Amino acid sequence: MPLCHCAVKHSESDMEGCRFSPDRGLRVHLHWKGGEEEEKYRTYIQGTPCAEEICIDVAQEIGITPICYSLFALYNPQAKLWYPPNHVFDISNGMKLTLHFRMR
Fold it and tell me: What is the rounded end-to-end Cα distance, in angstroms, of the chain?
């Protein structure tokens, strides 16, 4: 059973567009990430990952253990919306969306 319950099965290549980067794509704000010199965002610039895949990717990047993944989710502060784990983001070149990776 896949970790994500998305309608589309994703491969490692879907996550290749992930990197620390400036202003375009889907940006995930990391509230507690490192010191001043480290990036405070994880940016996805291509692909169609689901929210659960993004949460797992970010959690692994910042050292959250697998047992605690389910305590975190993606939050849109402007829309006051929590995204469910199966929400699929269609990330395109024109997308500009900033979400917060937070404990639920």
Answer: 24
